[in-house]
């Protein structure tokens, strides 16, 4: 069974090795009906240029039920059906156009999203942290792809013809530590960030700086700028299919702090 959906893209996670496609990214966004949806798998780097969408751009896509993924928000995209609708929504007027869409899916807190996962299987969420304590950097257990991952990356689909650089393993993980509104945790939440934007920032800077400087540059962007005093940061979050009690930060929504933003 197939069904069509129009989705405002809000999340592009960094790709992982995929046995079927070589590599695949998790994409998520908000439907016209005001619901969070996940598209997986998408080999984004192999899509035609005319199909490569940006954040906060509407797309239309045909989907079907996901394989081996019981999360209610997940659908498997029919790749050749992806069509872009207009340009990405602008940031003018305090990001009003984007705010009007994402506010439809906002939860009161991360704790509420975790409660919804336990009771209803909810696997995606959007919320405003009450306090962002810090961003930590931690070396990954393996700084390079393991043998099994390399074998997956070598499984290029015959229908994909694009020449591209090998997918780079990001050897450092970044974690937000935060408290949510009326937080029921004794300690702050600690959640890994898998936003593609962060990974690309790491890759660009690592070519010219040592690791410590690159970590500092990522923290400056994702902590000091995006979560700074002049911004109103919110987090998109999602869990893993095989570990549904474990949530990750998929992306940051960081409009300027305004009087209207305080109402939001």
SSE diagram, text form:
Layout: E1 2-12, E2 16-18, E3 22-31, E4 36-42, E5 58-65, E6 74-77, E7 83-85, H1 92-102, H2 110-120, E8 124-127, E9 129-139, H3 147-153, E10 172-180, E11 189-192, H4 196-206, H5 211-225, E12 234-239, E13 247-253, H6 259-263
Parallel strand pairs: 4-6
Antiparallel strand pairs: 1-3, 1-5, 2-3, 3-4, 5-6, 5-7, 8-12, 9-10, 10-11, 12-13
Helix pairs in contact: 4-5
Q: In angstroms, what separates the terminal alpha carbons?
A: 38 Å
| Helical content (DSSP H or I, runs of 4+) | 10-25%
What sequence of helices (H) and strands (E) makes up the elements?
EEEEEEEHHEEHEEHHEEH
Count of separate structural domains:
2
Give start-end ranges of low-pLDDT stretches.
Answer: none
Question: Beta-strand percentage?
Answer: 25-35%
Mean pLDDT value: 92
Radius of gyration: 18 Å
